[in-house]
Amino acid sequence: MTSLVDIQTVSQNIAQALNSITNAFTVLLGQSNSAAISATTLVRNGTARLCTVSITTAGSTNGTIYDSNDVASTLRPIYTIPNTIGIVQVNMPMGYGIVVTPGTGQVVTVSYSPI
Q1: Three-state secondary structure call for residue 28
Q2: Where are the domains of the chain?
Q3: pLDDT digits (tens, 9 = 90+) for 1-13
Q4: Which residue of 48, 69, 85, 99 has the fewest C-beta atoms within 10 A of its own C-beta?
Q5: Domain 31-114 has CATH 1.10.10
Q6: pTM to 2 decimals?
Q7: What does DSSP assign to residue 85?
Q8: For 53-100, what is each residue's pLDDT tens digit?
Q9: Angle ∠(58,112,83) on CA atoms, nearest 5
Q10: Where does residue 29 rank: exposed (0-12), middle (13-18), buried (19+ CB within 10 A)?
């Protein structure tokens, strides 16, 4: 016959497993969101995972997201932001930081998770 201690141990193990799954899922969806970005912006300094890009105003040209901690650096382009309204899943690790440079007239937001 199963004791109450065994049932409690199983319950704790299930709770820990669900917590781990939830944390992993949250990292992939983005733990933080930027404000609306219409000019070159350093969103995050340091390692992070770029999760989602939401284009709220299409603009007339594409934008770019860089793996950088300096708004002046264009050495590591990671993603081209299309000039089409919509939400795009990116899920890319960033080693230096996240710099977003919207295209002409574009307004975007990004979700990201610290790594």
Answers
A1: helix
A2: 1-29, 31-114
A3: 678 888 888 889 8
A4: 85
A5: no
A6: 0.80
A7: S
A8: 999 999 999 999 999 999 999 899 999 999 999 999 999 999 999 999
A9: 10
A10: middle
